Amino acid sequence: MTSLKEKVLELTNKFFPNVVEQRRHLHANPELSFKEFETSDYIAKQLDLLGIPYQRGFVETGIVAHIYGNNPKSKTFAIRGDMDALPIHENTGLDFASVNKGVMHACGHDVHTSSVLGAAAILNELRNEFDGTVKLIFQPGEEVLPGGASLMIKEGALENPQPEGIIGQHVYPQFEAGTVGFRPGMYMASADEIHLHVNGIGGHAAEPYRITNPIIIASKIILELQKINEIGKEKDIPTIISIGFVEGLGATNVVPNQVYIQGTFRTLNEEWRFKVHQMISDICHSVTAEMGGSVDVDVRVGYPFLENDINLTERSKIYAIELLGAENVKDLDIRMGGEDFSYYTHHLPGCFYRLGTSEPNNPSTGLHTPTFMVDENALKVGMSLLSWIALQELKHV
Fold first, then answer.
1. Interior CA angle at 213 toward 208 and 216, to 5°?
2. Domain covering 190-303 assigned CATH 3.30.70.360 in the classification
3. Tens digit of pLDDT for each residue in 157-203?
4. Which residue, 35, 38, 95, 148, is most buried by CB atoms nearer than 10 A?
């Protein structure tokens, strides 16, 4: 008698060529956040071919599909895949490289979406093997605020029926294809944006006594903000303030009237998070007042911290060991990156894990780079593990 695990692995091999084709189509036709119209059409077509019912129109391009097992109202478990790309010009040389200039799946969302489609095909074949319903969430806009997850939730993606748990995965070039990583509990940081307009009085650079140089003011603000990182360290609270953009638009002999600063603030403590928001404002206004300028401070609240449900994540790790072998299942460290999957984890138990994507002995370049590539064998793990976890969570009692 063929075991359920054997059935999953057999179906993985059966559907793998199609999932590779789906991934390559998505990779070649990337779309930016909240503009995934052709991507949404393509996903709907693939669901039609599988005969899986779905609803469209969540945040315009989002799709929610359902696979009904035995006694479909008994329990619901959700799988999420994000589908937006980044404003990066691809430089991989792949035959299926992006045809949309300046847009690239440099964060692996093509892998996420195709893995969910693969899992959908497997679970659809095995719908008599589980009790309950699998909810598939194809989500737009993970890469930009306010995050497609928050908007999908507001528009009812977690309703009718409401899932009792949710899983998602993310490509991880630090691990080889064939491996995955888990971390129960706190895993990823909140992610807020810092936008500052520093105002001074510009003029001729040779007449500093006639001007209030906003570049000098901005420089001091940046240095003072970095001290917050040290305060966080003293409090034993992971804290990162990083400034990534400074624009003055002056010249060698021209001091501008204004400097624009952009940065990010990450932490793992919500009380501290909002205290720091006030600290940022206080520092900016104090420095500018002292130096004769002014500042417009805009700290944009981004994604909350991502805390994996301990029980679901520990169970999922066990399922992964059962499917892949203990040598292919690793533990993860806390990450200061942000991810809008966190919104789901603030509504229901969630598990967000990492999918190894590098070729053996050939580490990939990092995420969000023009040369990012994946070993497509990772798709086998992606599709099989998503389906295997869902089957175990919905198995017959």
1. 115
2. yes
3. 999 999 999 999 999 999 999 999 999 999 999 999 999 999 999 99
4. 148
